[in-house]
Fold these 3 entries.
Entry 1:
Amino acid sequence: MDSRKIFLIDTSVLLYDKTSIHSFPGIKTVIPLVVLDELDRFKEKQGIIGENARYVNRFLDGIRSLGNLNEGVTLENDQEISVERNVDEKIPGDLDRSGGDNHIIGVARFLKSRNIDKDVRVITKDINLRVKCDSLGISAEDYYKDRITVDKDSIYHGWQSIEVKDSNIIDDFFENGKIQSDRVCKALNLNEYVIVKCGKQSFLGVCRGKYIQPLVSDTHEFIPIQARNKEQKFTIDMLTRDDINLCTITGRAGSGKTFLTLLAGISGLQSKKYKRIIITRTLEPVGKPIGYLPGGMDEKLDPWIGSIVDNFQNHFGDLTYFHLMKDKGNIEISPLAFIRGRTFNDAFIIVDEAQNSTIHELKTIITRVGENSKIVLLGDIDQIDTQYIDTYSNGLTIILEKMKNEAITGHVTLIKGERSELATLASKII
């Protein structure tokens, strides 16, 4: 055990990742007593949050047989876990003593006063708590287990524009219907899209192993829409390919990610490739939890499916088709919290606003995907509404980075806005 370090674990970390409770090997890990009270308030919640709270409670109860939590219990990974009650006199007088965060600060100051030579650190996803700690001279940091390390400009786009000097590359591609990928670029990921240029000549293609091949037609029998730009052509190709089971699409508002995905799902229904469309998203960022809203489940879900409904109406002129498919069970809308335990076969699954989900929430639904199904994760990684995640730690970013070179996955970043000139302008400068 590293006797020089003492980590205090905040509730936000335990609710974000249940395995964090035993993810600090060789470190003395302290759970402030107030954290147990906070976990207790979450244990009845549905979905990932409630499950995580219950898991941590059960885990702590289970290790009681190994020793006394007040004195510390050592795990097999040489991590020591203890529960420390708050020491009131260590809470600064100008802080509210009823606040849970302030209790954690009191525990941190108490431990530091008795371990002057040690690194006492608060581990929390709560930005405000980290700021408070810093202002009081207490070390604090984020929980970094689920976080990409590349800078924002280096996050995978799913496509790139490449200038070549050999015009034969262009000619050979059109003559043979493919070109060896290493003649264009030696560092392409599987299913990565390319714009290859040589002077005024160019072609669009996708890396499929050793070769760059043409895209599928952007005019599809069941998608009566023309792509408005190159990125949308890439998106249609990815959404309509049978060999890609996981699609991730990022882009600013109005770039067409929801519209194109919805049309691809409808196409799959009409061609009988899929039996149903599943639409889901996390609900918490919008405001009050779903249970506080009036009405039945359909009425409760209305505020969260506005973008889906709008796209149906824009394409079909009214919502007749939407309600018909919904009544027949061909379209199902379900909160992400209600997905656990289900299996989706013959389904086209849309996860809207996926940037507001943790990696653990998205893993839950991806592992629900069964035979003959495709799942599409949509979002804008620059618009995070969830308190404890950001551009680098949200589930969508992590998945597109970790799975960017898999044979059954694809990604496209949509750059250009197509909703309206005003919408595009606002996205850029406001």
Note: Residues 285-290 have pLDDT under 50 and may be disordered.
Entry 2:
Amino acid sequence: MAKNKYNTIDLFAGCGGLMDGFMQEGAYNTLACVEWESFPCQTLAKRLKTRWKHKNADEEVIRFDIQRTEELINGFDDAEYGKNPGLNKLIGNKKVDIVIGGPPCQAYSLAGRIRDPHGMKEDYRNYLFESYIRILEHFKPSFFIFENVVGMLSAAPDGTPIVDKIRKAFDDAGYLVIDNFKNAVFDVADFGIPQHRKRVIILGVRKDSVFKNVNEEGGISSIINEFYSEIMPKLKNESKPRTVRDAISDLPVLMPTKDVIRTNGHKYSHAPIESVGVFNHNPRFHSERDQKVFRLLGEDLESGRKEYVSIDALKDLYTKVTGKKSNIHKYYVLRWDEQSNTIPAHLYKDGMRHIHPDPKQARSITVREAARLQTFADDFEFLGPTMAQYKMIGNAVPSDFAKVIAKGLHELLNKYICNKSHIKSYGRNK
């Protein structure tokens, strides 16, 4: 490892979108990843082994409940999660330079709040940021990157805006952040990602850090302002727009079969394929009814008729087909020459809002196509049942966007830090 690589810990790591992007940038080294779900942990560990050649990946990926922070740090022996010596022993005397990650977004998401009868006010995930901050307080990294959904800006589970609580918690922990989180919102499509996906990216800088070249008047705040007002806009302007066609058009075609195929305990409505070097590109099962609808909607767009573009038309079609009513439209066909709509975790339940643009294929997108739209490389293999794969991809940060963030942060590091030795070593809480 090069001398000037910065050590990171990834919290709420999922399958490793943020980690993979940071590693691609080449300036960072992953010391540990924390995630509580089994299949994302397996996927993440395999990625660290195969792509990033981490020999100790199974130890570096810690499956555990981050809310039990003291045990996570000092070690645990648990019936569900197994035995682990904890972060302190794993990291040893290495300095943690940067913490990355973001708590699960479901409690803050607008869709989640609409579906939940209590508006997610009683969901424990509203306060998982507190566990993130306890890790900051212990390891005292000079920087952190905190990612979450835009719905966070309007969430107020106990009547107080959650952003006010988060900002105060960061301040109490010794970190400066941007004054207005609304100015920390980015659409990943602006950075060359073939998908519209708005996220809040909060850069935090430790208040007692000592850097070179810092504007004396603005202090550390000037570093934060530079990230948002100069560096990220520049990276946006450097990026070329990418579309659904750019992302998935070269993948093998999956056509409907005349009869249902049953093999290895699975049934297929479309011909399953095996592609060398392309993992997770098998279609989910679709009934004849759904195939008919998908074909109708695809042909409607392809022909230019566009009878089923409006929300009302799509809702009426759903009622006509199923006999049920829905407050939201259930169908959406991806447009070849536009960016995709957001790839959500909800994709594991059904793919009706992510229908393949080719009407002949009459299907929703595969795991690999979802991964492509999230900019995961084709050699990034997702483990576990298909539904778990969809879920972890939908929860992930697009890998290429993570690389953009990592590049922007690295530019700051190059400007304000001569080498790693210039990052103050604060020690750890005992």
Note: The chain has two domains: 6-241+397-422, 252-365.
Entry 3:
Amino acid sequence: MAKKTKNTKANDTAVVEETVVKNKKAEKVAPEKKQENSDEEEKEYSILNLGPTHPATHGIFQNVLKMDGEIIHEATPTVGYIHRAFEKLAERRPYYQITTLTDRLNYCSSPINNMGWHMTVEKLLGVQIPKRVDYMRVIIMELSRIADHLICNSVIGVDTGAMTGFLYIFQWREKIYDIYESICGARLTTNIGRIGGFEREWSPKTWELINAFVEGYPKGLKEFANLLERNKIFMDRTVNCGPISAEMALQYSFTGPNLRAAGVDYDVRVHTPYSSYEDFNFIIPVGTSGDTYDRFMVRQEEMWQSLEIIKQAIKNMPKEGSFHADVPDFYLPPKEEVYNNMEALIYHFKIVMGETDVPVGEVYHAVEGGNGELGYYLVSDGGRTPFRLHFRRPCFIYYQAYPEMIKGSMLSDAIITMSSMNVIAGELDA
């Protein structure tokens, strides 16, 4: 028994010694690998929901951020919080009623959405629009562009801690909304215009408001520019914040100010003119690095260019001519005729009830919206409602690139980047 015990002890000692030797060899062979594994185990990430509340995210959408302290390690976007199925709703509505749906896309520049839709239907119908109507539309669309850029740039200032510029410039947004109200009776979701033109001739009060804005806004815009454009604190916060290269922007199908800020001079108004934009002289401003500061400055210059376009439209607008094209199937007869003429009453009823057939066809029409190329793809089977309708929403495209643009940046920079891209939630959940 004693001999057996001795052998057992000897064996145990040998096993222990062998284990110690193996451990020492492992430490010598791969000390770095062991350290890496240890760091990965010790590193803790926190999960932060950026949104879906409005103050930071400019609408109802969410970014799930994986944070390493203040640094964004990963970002996962989610949409669908206010999904309203615009495109499916449009398949059950008469063409004139779809105008109210387009208001809800980019609600910062609703009239551009409205005009784009009207032009799409007019393209399908083959309607010839009077030059006067084209110029009236240009005035409204450029006022909308100013309102959109004004909101975007003033909010960038707020998100960097500069509230004063916002308070200085935002009053001019109200003056633009006063113009909308005098034309169509609405301010935010405008439902402005009709297929073929406008619902009525503009009043002298409307022209008075437009002229007052064109004369007064340069002073307000210059004050705003003096507060921010060369402000050192503002530049330190925005330069090299959320940059995107021209190549990456094109790969993501960027358009509008966000693409032009990256150095690509694509503008639908120039490359595919509509509404007589070929008659106007203006500059397409471009940036170089595609960062937040470039996006801010491109929008600043575009507001100056929009003012010049409006001045040209007022000066060169034909004095004679109707406020709408000859499309009786989409224009209500005058009230006095409806009250006294049975045929006019029948036409009024048919238009209101949406009993107008349109030709069979397939069209795509795009306009330069406040945020880029806003396109409408319309398929008609000859019925009274669209067979299929698809909206090309620029913000939906921008949001896909957003996680890549903010990866590795600080949380505060992510907020500013989103502001400068002007991602509007209404265009995400169509």
Note: The beta strands are 46-50, 62-68, 71-78, 360-369, 372-381, 388-392.
